[in-house]
Amino acid sequence: MTKSSLFSFIWFYLGWFGCVYLANKPQELLSFLFPAVAYFWLISHDKKSPRFIFALLALSIIGMCFDFLSVRFGLLHLHQSVSFPFWLVALWALFASSLPSMLDFLGKRLVLAAALGAVGGPCSYFYGQAFDILSFSNNTAIIVYALFWACYTPLSLIILRRLQ
After folding, report:
1. Measured between alpha carbons, how far is 146 from 34 in angstroms, rounded to an integer?
2. Residue 78 φ/ψ, nearest 5 degrees
3. Which secondary structure element, helix H or strand E, spans residue 19, and what is its range?
4. CA distances to 39, 55, 96, 155, 158 from 161, in Å
5. Cα–Cα distance, 71 to 85 (Å, whole number)
6. pLDDT tens digits for 78-104?
7. Which residue has the higher pLDDT, 12 or 105?
8. In whole angstroms, how far apart are CA 96 and each of 40, 103, 147, 158, 159?
9. What is the number of domains present in the chain?
């Protein structure tokens, strides 16, 4: 594991916890610091091109749209009054910033990437339930999320591999 991948791995998990912890708190906007540091690292240390960074941001927007639609169609319940919270936007931006660190290991193992996405994606939301910030509406929602992540993860890696 490279220094950059190690930083990305550790920072993503610290950032995930930070974003979830800050949900529903007056300091929720501070959750944007986590992806900001991650993108600063990608630009300054990893020397990622503006085109690559734009692709990461586009991938995060795709994820945000999926969550937004899931909330609108009742698959996902957010336990706060706003229609789409800042912490979730920050979390998607942070997740997308971690994708480059996955390229070396999963970039050519797309079936494994799909399997890990199908399990890891919904698990992340289950852990969010422990913080009482969101919940799945039913078991169908979990299946929909598993299918989304099974497609999203390998497709994201394919896109980023072509841009590298």
Report:
1. 25
2. -95, 130
3. helix 3-22
4. 18, 11, 14, 10, 5
5. 11
6. 998 777 899 999 999 999 999 999 988
7. 12
8. 13, 12, 18, 13, 12
9. 1
10 Å CB burial of residue 138 (0-12, 13-18, 19+) is exposed
Could you give the CA distance from residue 30 to residue 51 in angstroms, rounded to a whole number? Answer: 26
Q: Which two tokens mark 113?
A: 């990437």
Strand-pairing partners, residue 78, are: 134
Per-residue confidence band for 24, with pLDDT thresholds at 50, 70 and 90:
confident
Query: For residue 1, is pLDDT > 80?
Result: no
Provide the residue count of the chain: 164
Parent domain of 92: 3-163
